[in-house]
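New to this. Please check this record:
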Amino acid sequence: MTSPCIIFINQEFLKDSTSEIVKILPSYLDYDWNNFISSVQVEHIHIRSGINYSPFSNKIVDMLALRPPKYNPDFNLSFAEVTDQHLHESWKKYSDKKWLILWSGGTDSTVILASVLKNLSKEDLTKIDVACNRISVYENPQFFYNHIVPNFNLIDSTYFRLNHDTFDQYYVFTGDMAETPVATLGGRATQLNIDRKTLLADWRNNADLVISFLQARGKDNYVSKRSDATAQWFYENIKNNINSVDVPIETCYDFFWWSWFNNTWVDVKLRSLHYQPYQTKESIIKYLDNFIPWFGTENYQHWAMNNNKIGVKYGDRFSDRKLALKQYIYDFNKDYHYFKYKTPLDSTGRGTIRQENKFFCLLDDFTPLYLKTNMSRIRQLLPTYINNNL
């Protein structure tokens, strides 16, 4: 019997420079921890493909089949075709119990419901419940009153919990993971006054532009900033990672998209796990079996790799983010105002109760370890988890 090993670290804990775990990391590896942790302030780094510049291994990527599919330049399905096909395949695959769709009012979760309403029968809709709250309605009242109220049983998500009872009754569908293949940083460029010419420039010939963008990019509405040294460090590591894969990453937009698509997919996949009221091995396995991020499929990733194009994924205005998703919704309900003017809001975790006692890492049997109660075991297992091939 092999000894247990760590497969995932919740990098939220690396943002606290005073924590014991941050203080002991340098003793395990001669590595530029300061710049790595500064980058974690902006985004988690769990490399899925290509050279791994993170000090952490990525065994969870293989255990949960989270690597991106091999790039296929001949993939030609539209976003609408991918979405409709995914709905039909999911309806067959997840047919043994009811669905619960978490609807925030935003574009990601509205695509799921538009697909359901477009492709399923009235009888089928009785097997689907929708969880939302009053803030969801504020964000998209037309869709709520015209399409949700007449067709679905509603659950108030204000105090909603992802727990065993929920997963025993439902497959839970969420719009999580739409950001990673579809929107990403390039679509946010208008916040930093990045024009179309700059977005479409060759990133290899415009390193100063890319580094400047990275330096300005912070977490809290882009107020906090990376240092020049950290931005340069991040750029060089992403460049080396890009050069090790066969995905066409040519423009500045492509560069920013890849840094998100390849680095943060794993974290987004597991993000909602931390909203559970308890985190045990059994509850984590139940979550993995029953919590379905709608956009986490191979075909959505194929579409994303072949459609980093202005007028498809994004446009010139901030409201043009997630353009393909908004087009799909508009084709269904003809709500021009939502299509033209809807801007992104932070709806992550909306309607769920956030937990304070998050696990620090997962073992290969999905046992969680906590800093408060499992520190000695973490210190024992952590050195073998750190990637010594850097």
